[in-house]
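User: I want to check something. If I give you two sequences, will you return the structure for each one separately, not as a complex?

Assistant: Yes, each is folded on its own. Here is the first sequence with its structure:
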Amino acid sequence: MNKTIDRKTFLSYLGTGAAALAAASAGLGTLNGKASAMSSTADHLFGFNTNRVSGYFEPIAPSSEDKLLLPNNFKYDVVAAFDDVINAAGERFGSGCDYNAFFPLEGSNVRGLLVNNHEYSTIFSIGPVKDGKMTKEQLHNNLYYQGMSVIEVYRDDKGVWKMDINSSNARRINGYTKFDLTGPAKGATALGGATTAIGTFANCSGGVTLWNTVLSCEENFAETAAASSLPDTHYGWVIEIDPFDKKYLKKHTALGRFNHENTAMGIAKDGRVVVYMGDDKKDACVYKFISKGKYNKSLGRGNSALLEEGTLYVANLKKGEWAPVTLEAVQKAAKDKPELLKKFETQGDVITFCQEAALLVGGTPTDRPEDIEISPFDNTIFICHTNNDNHGNIHGHITRIFETGSDLGSLTFDFEIFAAGGRQSGFSSPDNLAFDSNGHLWVVTDISSSSQNKGVHKPFKNNGLFVIPTSGPDQAIALQFASAPVESELTGPFFTPDEQTLFLSVQHPGENTTDLNNPTSRWPHRAGDSKARCAVVAISGFKLG
């Protein structure tokens, strides 16, 4: 058997399942688990009643157009865009839409609750800020439009995805919402003794828990907190909501305070819950939390208590070890630094000032660790290191961690560079990840708006969505599935359980606009609309007439 396959042959295998791909690649790098037994219907055109988005497609070329472009035989529906009314109370969809999570209603693949994060405000949501200071109205809108939305979505009998604004579950969670604090920083001096916190904002990515709630991550929170004179230490946490329970709102301090990107939850071999997290900042670290107690499926949402007590670890890539970010470890590392010993007197202090503590105990500074996902097929950990020009890592890379014994609870690991961004791979600046049932990795990119279509980023044009196989000699090849509108990025890819629909956010189109009368983008090009709007779209296949 040939050791390599050409691009045309490779494309014929994409969508036929990990087993066929592994066979085509002479058995190199195969994945174990259910992926090897699954396949998709790749031998005919897509139809929303019969086919998966995650099957075969003809890759598209990079584009600089102000459009959301997809392969032939695919379409998208704008489900919710900035400032759309989402419920009977008149609440409105937020700004900077990011992470998505779909929760079926009564087991349906065509009706459910969609949770969406709202990361930050833009000129389209608050208007131009003069002299760097927001007006009272702008401060209000800045807090209102960030946070999260819970909306109800459905696919009608014509195959069009829509929002149901009469849903009793639809609501906003934002900078005015009250949260209960849990864990070591609850009542801590570093938080002014607070046991509750008002508001969430800078909500980037997130994750779904084993008990069917959502974890949402507060990322670049400092600017909003400062602008509204809010206590800085009340933000930068992982929050938990229940899409079906409006009163369930928590901030879990045991998971640490930093520029959270997302969470990826799994179970150690001994039954403890493990949560992986990235810190989206240059020279920041990769973390994981291991609960003290063990997961008990019968407890349902009661398992949330596992996120209140456990140990936070930081990755030391040089040693291949997870170093504990604990009071004992920090005080030992700072024993000759009186000023640090005074700063870190309790575990509440350690997790509140987590970034500094993590470096003290040996955490490895990395290149903007953003989305982290656990492979559902072999328990390897995939990390998007988006880029870091301080290190000359312009195009970023995807790291793959192999926990010792394939045990998520292990404290030692090995790793590899799974795919490096650049000309050779066809993508730059990886950001969010999602796996499909064929074992393929879906990757969206985050080339900054100021760099798009310029210099070394010129060949990639606008940001995009790519599919990369996780096995075989061609695993570094990125096949482009979507191209984003001007000055936007695609975020939050999330499949319905049957993979016939892919929800995707189009974030900050026209981000560099300075004059509202002359926006750099007008996507989604609604009739009579004069500005760009971030939005969530539902992507599905269709049959040609």
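And separately, the second sequence with its own structure:
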Amino acid sequence: MTIDTFATADARTGSGSRPWPALSHRTVVALSVWGVLFAAELIVSLYLAGGRLVFTLDDGYIHLAVADQILAGGYGVNAGEVSSPSSSIIWPYLIALTEALHLGPWGPLLIGAAAAAATLVTIVRLLESSGLFDGERAWFTNAIALLMIFIVSAVALPMTGLEHSLHVWATVTTFAGLVEAARGRSPSRLQIAALVLLPLIRFEGAALACAALAGLVLLRQRRAAALAAGLIAVALLAYGARMHALGLPLLPSSVLLKARIAEAAYEHTSALGAIVDNLILSLINPYGQRLLLLAMAVAVTAWWLRSDRRALVVAGAVLAAIGGHVAFGQYDWFHRYEVYVIALGAVTWLWLIAQLKPQLDARVAHALKVPLLLLLGYASWPYASAAWVSPMASRNISQQQYQMGRFVHEFYPHPVAVNDLGLVAYRNPNYVLDLWGLGSEPVRKAKLAGRYGPDEMAALAAERGVGLVMIYDRWFTRGVPASWTKVAVLHSPFVTVAVGDVSFYRAPAADAAEVNRALAAFAPTLPPDVSLEILAP
């Protein structure tokens, strides 16, 4: 027997045992590898962003702005005006706690990193307890552990400052609860909590939550299913009551403006057409193709195990959740929308292989290792790529949105309008009009009604006393109001920003001399590779 550098030969631990055993050697080494990779990424990101912690996406700062408004007794990004820009029910409330501790961006980062570490621990324990690593050589188990780090995007995902790392943890932990039920044991309290949190962290989590509840019932864990279902119902009813009291829709603006099926439901257009569009997208999108390959692998392995009813129930619940994402979910947006279901498919497949392993001839089992690793490597590649590019993405957000935020805080402290909301709105005491619609209900309603254009933009800006507008021109295909004067263009590189050039417009409410002075003072303070082209008045 060879010595496994990730674990000793007897490291069989139960993922749902109570209490959990001490971390195995394999788990410690996997966490150590992740810790080194994550620390290196963070250090390089801080260096490239001028010593500041800057998320790889501007979206994380939208949630921070909402969290600050929650602490102030409101909900949205502007004091005294409600809106629902957050893509998560619970995430703004979680980071409101870190904002109360004055952690700033470090709060979401710490939660995301802790969730990523917990996800790795859950996966390694699950695979150890399933027997996947028993009798295997070090190269194979090491490769599996390394691939898991990237398949769950444990390095890149926390740097977005968003809820996705927590969603991946809840997904994997819910699956571990299903495995416990398949073993004839009740899911742990932590696994029930993860199941309840699924739709609260991300609306996409509802698919796995429903499938897991059905799976628990079929696996004769009806009490656990009833408890989880009751808690989910109470939480969603409380959220719905809160949104109704605020006069907001049940779904947040980010979902209504981005998801085809949600828009169809609210606008009474063809929901079937939206689903068909999503199915076609899944077939042609590289992420969708990866997901479908994993689903096929899960289905084929489950077919081999068709005499094992419990394994079929678990696989069926997972395939139902994957089908939900294929029909209704989204992909990419810097490698984050689909990562939870990619991780779910990969972990499920490995668990099913572990169940199949005793039935396989040793030579067949050995021959399957290479294609197994190739498919996992293919699935993990976008997230390994994201880890590599994340420090440059942090610098890119620092070059554009951070500079825009600095401009409105230090040089032009007055109401402004934008189409990229986060860093401009975060900790800004002045009004910020979101011309894209995430943080502005009038804009969202006008866009979904098909009547949004220059006239509405001009009226909303005038109503709120907006003097300066900073937008991507190409996002507004109908043009901008004729009353706005283009005064500058901020030029920055392109990595994760949507567009490299941001156009600055002076609206009628502005003092022209003050705008000119602010732009002139701002231009010399910009970092290298960023410039402000001031246009003739």
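Because they were folded independently, the notes below concern the second chain alone. DSSP finds 21 helices and six strands in the chain. Residues 362-399 form the longest helix (38 residues).
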